[in-house]
Amino acid sequence: ARQFGKINVNRFFKALDGYPEIATVTKDPNQKSNIGGLWHTDHSYDAEPAKGSLLYAREVPEVGGDTMFSSMYAAYDALSDGLKRTLAGLKAVHSSRHVFGASSRALTEGDLKGRLLNPELATQDSVHPVVITHPETGRKALYVNPNFTVRIEGWTEEESAALLDYLYRHAVRPEFTCRFRWQVGSLAFWDNRSTWHLALNDYHGNRREMHRITLDGTALS
Fold first, then answer.
1. Which of 94, 109, 159, 197 has a CA between 20 and 30 Å from the CA of residue 165?
2. Catalytic residue of the set 43, 128, 197, 211
3. Cβ partners under 8 Å of residue 89, min gap 6
4. pTM greater than 0.90
């Protein structure tokens, strides 16, 4: 990971003993909730969102536990010219509070307690363009996601819901997505600025343990 950038030490995940830069993503056989079970892009709530993430499989079920990815390049390219013009002037608010904070339903009603830590540190709010220009490729990509995006800047959550819900449905059309099937020792490395991902929760009664490293990024425009 260090060959590709500065490592971001995660605030909310339990770290591997002796390796604070490696976050553990684990689900035990008796647990129902999984981490990453909604479509998202890592750290979009930060002012300088993550450049990329690496996920390494240590223990996986025989069946299930795959990860879905979706291309936000492809999602943007498939939008109509009229909607592209509308989105060009919009920014969106992203937050960590409702996912990792003390009032998060995942922590108060689910079994993620102990796997997600430091709710008092979930104070990140940021604003990013709805459509970004990738800082390395120069390509346009859709940059909102169901997990961390709260609303369109200057709009209420109710006013934002219709447009965001449409973009969320559009972005996971089958032609934009792929499915990664894990084996022990598999390593996935993705660009958070141009993809979403989703951890499928279809392996109850089995254990899955992954190790993740996230790379610092830059401000988006």
1. 109
2. 197
3. none
4. yes
